[in-house]
Structures are given as C-alpha cells and as structure tokens.
C-alpha cells in the first residue's frame, strides 16, 4: 500500500497556481465501509496515514475529497510546534493559519485521545472545520480537549513528521507537502 500512495518530486509553481483552493463543500467520495490510506509526500520524506470513516465519516470524506482534488499539493506545514503541544499543522492555502477551502463543516464526536501519531482537524472554534489538519507528533492528550475531530493515525513516517522544521508565525521556512495521495486500503 505504501507504494500506492508514494509520489516523488514536487509540483511546479505553475501547477500549484492551477489548483482550485475554493469549494462550496466536500462532495461525497468515500465508502464508509472502507479504510483509506493517505501518503503525505513531503520534502523530508513520506508520512503514511490510515483514515477510518467509522470514527469520523464527514472528516475522512472531507480530507479524501480535498486530496483527490490536489488541494494539499504544494501546501506547507505552516505551524510546527514542539512545546507546549507537539504538532505539525498544514492544509492552509494561504500558509498563515487562517485559510481554508471556502466552506466549514460540523464537528464530529471525538473517539480517542491526541496521542503521538493521531491526526485531527484544526479549527478556530466549534463547527469551523475546513482543510487544516494536524499530526500529533507527541502525546497531547492532557493539553487538548475533545474539540478537534480525530480521523486517523500515522502508520509509517511518524519520525518524518517529528523532524519537520519548527515554525510558528513565519519564524522559519516551512516544509512542503509535495503531494497528498489517497487510496482505499480495504
């Protein structure tokens, strides 16, 4: 499965400019009975996620829809923190932490806790999920409440996520998600 979600190289600046970053909502593109595998091909290596619609169907569908439309290709991990929480956050087409896909969707019940390797949607408050997501690169269970939709976990490449350049408020050059590729795993 890893080879199916691996795509080397990087999109050109012209290719990134052609990507649509504004939608009215996520079309239904998943089968809720299947598990999905996502490969985040970064300039530092591959991060492989397992996405399970049984724990957050709207959130998994949203991520898969955006990835299938190349939304994430060429975007950065614009917020990478080691303390007080350990996360790698990306998915903002503006790269500032305030951008999104042009729509928001509702929260889903959080099943689980924010342990190292879990993946959740970033938001600015209740029911404001869009395109930004974060990977817990450490155990954030005691720092984060249940306000971020958990929708998957890292199955390979957590060390890559943990090695991303620390960035907050433009303090460094962020690492790039060259391509995000999603395939049904089951």
From TrEMBL:
Example GO molecular function: peptidyl-prolyl cis-trans isomerase activity
Listed Gene3D superfamilies: Cyclophilin-like
Recorded superkingdom: Bacteria
Enzyme Commission number: 5.2.1.8
InterPro entries reported for this sequence: Cyclophilin-like_dom_sf, Cyclophilin-type_PPIase_dom, Cyclophilin_A-like
Domain PPIase cyclophilin-type span(s) in chain numbering: 45-186
UniProt KW keywords: Isomerase, Rotamase
Protein name, per record: Peptidyl-prolyl cis-trans isomerase
Organism per entry: Dictyobacter aurantiacus
